[in-house]
Amino acid sequence: MKRFSGLFLLSLFLVVLTGCPKRPLIPPVDQAKRDAENAIATASEAINVALQAGADTTEAEALLEEARMAFADGDYATAISKAREAELSANKAREEALAKAKVEKREEEIVMEEEAVEEAPKVYVVGTWERDRDCLWNIAKKPSIYGDPWKWKRIYKANTDKIKDPDLIYPGQRLVIP
Hints:
Helix content: 55-70%
Distance between the termini: 99 Å
């Protein structure tokens, strides 16, 4: 019995000694103030990221300013709410700017492709494999044709009357380049 009580007291002592670390209690007002500060900082960072993406952040900046004024007045709940609205607005503006940039880039690529196609020769005479390494892949890869080997199918489709098997083209063949 002494042995059992000794073990029990030892384990109780260890539990009390190590115990669970407790967070210091923060008054609710101070916690609300910290939450408002964090929300404002997060919204400010979101606006900066949106500006770097070329977005119009006028609405988000106005909401952030309202959040800062509410914070200065001690209305932390309103400050948090306005800061979160500003963050959402900035993220939305950023996404719209990125989508617009993506569309513009794709349109630019299409124009460049069309210009490259217009500059391409209308007829290509196949050379020998030993000398020119001509195959549809390498022909399409040439800068004077498409500059992209993956477009070999265009050449094949335009010349199906002359090419039965895309793996077999012969020196001297005259291929139409669309």
